[in-house]
Amino acid sequence: MTLLDGLILLALISVLVTMLGYRLPVIGWLTSALFAGQLLVLFLMSGLGYGGDTIHSSVALSIFGQPLSWRFDALSWFFALITIGAALASSLFAAGEWGRQYRQNGGNPGLLQFSLALNVLTMLILLASGDLLALFIGWELVSWASFLLMAMAGGAAFSWAMRYITYATGGAMAILAGMGMVYQMTGSLQYADLMAVAGQLSQAQVVILSLLFGSGFAIKMGVLPFHLWQAGAYAETPGPGTAFLGSISSRMGLYGILVVLVQLIGLGRLIEIDISFTWLSLRDLLMWVAAITIILPTFTALRQNDARRLLAWHGVGQGGYMLLGIFSATALGSSGGLMHVFNHATYQAALFLSVYAVVHRTGTADLNKLGGLVTRMPLSFLVMLVGIIGLAGIPPMNGFVSKWLVYRSLLIEGMPLLFVASVIGTLGTILSVYKLIHNMFLGQLRAEHSEIREAPWSMMLPMLVLSLIVFITGFMPGLALDWVAAAQAAVGLPVLQHSLGGVEMEQGGLDMTWLVAVLFAGFGIGALLFYSTGKTRHVNQLDNYAGGHFLTADVRYHYSDHFYAGLMHRIGHWYRESFQWLESVLISLTGFVAQGASGFYRIVQPALLMLVVVVLALWVVR
Amino acid sequence: MSDLKQIPVVAKETGKERTNPLANVFDELIRFAQARSMFMLHYCTGCGAIELPPAMTSRFDMERLGIQPMVTPRQADILLITGYVSIKTLKRIILTYEQMPSPKYVIGICSCTVNGGMYWQSYATAKKLNEYLPVDLYIAGCMPRPEAVIEGLRLLMDNIKSGKSEPWKDYYQRYDYYLGNQQHLFGDDWQTPTDIIGEAEHFGLMGPETEGEHTRLLQQHQQPLEPHKMRLK
Lengths: 622, 233
Hints:
The complex is a heterodimer of chains A (about 625) and B (about 230). Chain A is mainly alpha-helical and about 625 residues long. Chain A has 3 domains: about 250 residues, no CATH class; about 240 residues, no CATH class; about 40 residues. Chain A has 25 helices and 4 strands. In chain A, the strands form 2 sheets. A two-stranded antiparallel ribbon of chain A has the order 1-2. In chain A, strands 3-4 form a two-stranded antiparallel ribbon. In chain A, helix 16 packs antiparallel against helix 18. Chain B is built from 9 helices and 7 strands; from the N terminus they run αβαβββαβαββααααα. Chain B has 2 domains: about 140 residues, Rossmann fold (3-Layer(aba) Sandwich); about 60 residues, no CATH class. The termini of chain B are far apart. A 5-stranded parallel beta sheet of chain B has the order 2-1-3-5-7. Chain B has a two-stranded antiparallel sheet with strand order 4-6. Classes of the chains: A mainly alpha (about 625), B alpha/beta (about 230). At the A-B interface, loops of A face helix 3 of B.
């Protein structure tokens, strides 16, 4: 029995324990302990993260002559680390007071923990897959496990989850078709066989394979134009489930893209293919899709008035940076893309959890009904501040490092337009995260929130640990870049030469330890000036200037609705919601065809049945 | 308070001798810097406001003197009142003035702020601004031209540089007088959100006339606004 068997077995035990003991009041703590155990086993396998040998599972099956195998390489280990870490943080958040309140409100915290455990198990199975058939089985398991987590709240959540599963089934069909094509070409579904023939495939075959696999996996990522399901489905999931889904679930699509497009087919083949009548190669086209995936969802996030929706839309947008980095196929860019998976998971989980801490205390995530909570929930504010600095990609947090790597590779590779596109996306990110923290924590404290307390420690602990990770991997990105470099080697991308502080290059590298030191020295000088010059006096928020008006507690002067009116005056008319329109057209078209088919079936039913019987009879007789 | 010499000089209670030989140099430097970077909140009440755009923009260019407009009293140094002050407006002016951080300077532009001007018979207009606020200087005229406005501002700068322009301390040290005039105009239940006596204590600017019968009247009905403290539990 190898360590991988132990890991999967422990994940299976977690699922069984949560399934049998979901009524126990301590089930949250128990699940957290089991996740911590899985993390421990993963640390025993940490050799993988530093270039160790692949660990194979001793379980092997054969279906219809197709051998199925499971193994863990550096890439799987990297993704598994994020998965189990996110699950541990989410489960710990739900274990204490949050779970009790959720139970009082009619929810079932045991079911939530079970769904988390099931998601982790299925994701580990997917990450461990050693051939295309195992990959597909893992893929379907992950889809249905995510569906359980999304649908468990019922109501609106269920209809969003249905939408997700419709998309996901379509994606799975595309992947299945791709697998059929691979089988027809090579006669096997082993990674090695596909890799061996990848060089001899015709250009048409490469295009079709990339589109089939790419679109199948991209649906899970929420890449445009398959992005419409994601924000709603994630935002409606109860509490910590959102944090887990938002931080890692959609990255399983990226894992699939990495395995099939990058590792097996190879980005070199995609670069070779020129698209007629344009100056783009197939790879460039995919990069532009990624760039548009950054921009449109980010600016959609800017318009959201629900904190959960806003963050969920950013989850869609940030996926674009990962794809952009990986498709650049350079050591610099792909390490940025891969590192962004880790970084995004850490700050996105921290952000979602701090939003849910506020929801736990105030009962709402509506950005027009909050404000001024910084004096009542200062630690949650701190966590959100760290998180948004990471999300916006500003030093000293880790989001800056990965975005810097992506930008730098785009500039070095001579892709200035893509660089500008990603910077526009970052601009939208900065604007919308400012809206988020301003509307929730800054400004006027509502009278009904004046007695609110900070979230309990069982919720604060995972939030603080996550924000600490966001800072530490920003201060010393080498810690995460080690794992990234091993993952790059595992999928055959060029490996990034890095140091603890960042990257050393002739054209100007990045050393975060220096950068952070200079930044904090600046803060220090500011603090010195602030605290050394004269006395300060705190005043009440109602002692405030509003054009000479006398403010009272019943006057709302917190500017939250129709944020960025000036910007919206310029760009507001660009929000055409064409994708929503397209989706509704598709839905009505499908409904129309289905209605027609059922009408046709009802009219010609006897004849149709007879036809079927005749065909079957002929087939049997023959 | 039209004559500076009438302001009673209050000895500092701390009684500390200034031992640093460079103290006067620092004071000089700080006053020079203060005089050269002034943010101006213009409370434009009347026709005098029309003279400010040319004074601020390229023709006369106030900004070359380091004077520029500011949108909030919290960062402003000068409160510029440019015309007749109705009683309703005066409440807002006092609120705004009290929200400015010290040191702060008040300039009344136009004759209306000096003596009511053409509104001197009006029942609804405050005639003398310096009964309600300590005014640093008046720029008389109906209306004063931008040259006169800039001349007045240069005078204020000279006063600040030489350390003569300290009427803002007078508001703390003789708060009872100003509050009495305000109560006479607005009624006995007049109050602003700012706690002037608390600020005077906080910054060590208490004088013999800071408290009196009018402040006692205020304290009877005043509801103090405590700042929100950061709290974990």
